[in-house]
Recover the amino acids of this structure.
């Protein structure tokens, strides 16, 4: 196991420790926020990353994918006002989530680094923001989350989906995807909630809702 010292990309803690070794890369653990991450020297190129995403086949016709999204969307709607406006951050090559939300009476903007790179969406305020299967890909998760948080209205909600890290990390399928570079636990999500002074709701494993408290702009 290599013994270098890498800063945590989420909480910026300087004292992280080796956690595991994969076939082509190492994983480090932050004892402060509980994030396990891949150091940047092992990141795949942007070209390789996009090529991976280009193969995603997501649509309303994919019942399995719709059911997967509903794990977040159904509990999320409990916190939304009527006619709420939202943003889907990391919508991918086949945006689907916004269509489901529009069917439920909400409107949404789209953003994706590769497929919908319109930065003007961040100049607006939203009642809710969703980010499904995205935060495990982020090179700079804290900075991206800060940007999203600043776009939320008072009492707004940020809905996140990512597979929570398992104890049997060595055999976990999720880490085999080389575009997955950050692995979260409920403790990590609680650190994020505390950082933003937010209320954290975890409806089920892999799903988190962070609510901006009243009085926070």
């Amino acid at each position: 196991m290599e013994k270098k010292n890498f800063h945590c990309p989420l909480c910026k803690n300087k004292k992280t420790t080796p956690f595991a070794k994969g076939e082509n890369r190492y994983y480090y653990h932050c004892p402060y926020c509980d994030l396990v991450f891949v150091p940047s020297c092992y990141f795949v190129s942007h070209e390789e990353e996009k090529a991976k995403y280009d193969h995603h086949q997501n649509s309303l016709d994919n019942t399995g994918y719709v059911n997967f999204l509903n794990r977040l969307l159904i509990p999320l709607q409990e916190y939304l006002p009527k006619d709420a406006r939202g943003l889907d951050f990391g919508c991918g090559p086949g945006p689907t989530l916004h269509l489901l939300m529009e069917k439920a009476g909400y409107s949404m903007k789209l953003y994706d680094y590769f497929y919908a790179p319109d930065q003007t969406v961040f100049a607006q305020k939203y009642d809710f923001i969703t980010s499904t299967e995205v935060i495990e890909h982020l090179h700079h998760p804290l900075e991206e989350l800060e940007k999203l948080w600043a776009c939320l209205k008072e009492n707004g909600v940020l809905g996140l989906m990512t597979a929570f890290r398992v104890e049997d990390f060595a055999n976990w399928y999720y880490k085999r995807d080389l575009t997955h570079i950050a692995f979260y636990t409920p403790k990590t999500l609680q650190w994020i909630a505390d950082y933003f002074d937010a209320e954290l709701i975890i409806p089920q494993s892999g799903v988190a809702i962070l609510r901006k408290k009243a009085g926070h702009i």
Q: What stands out?
A: The mean pLDDT is 93. Residues 45-164+184-211 form a domain with the Rossmann fold fold (CATH 3.40.50.150). The longest helix spans residues 63-76.
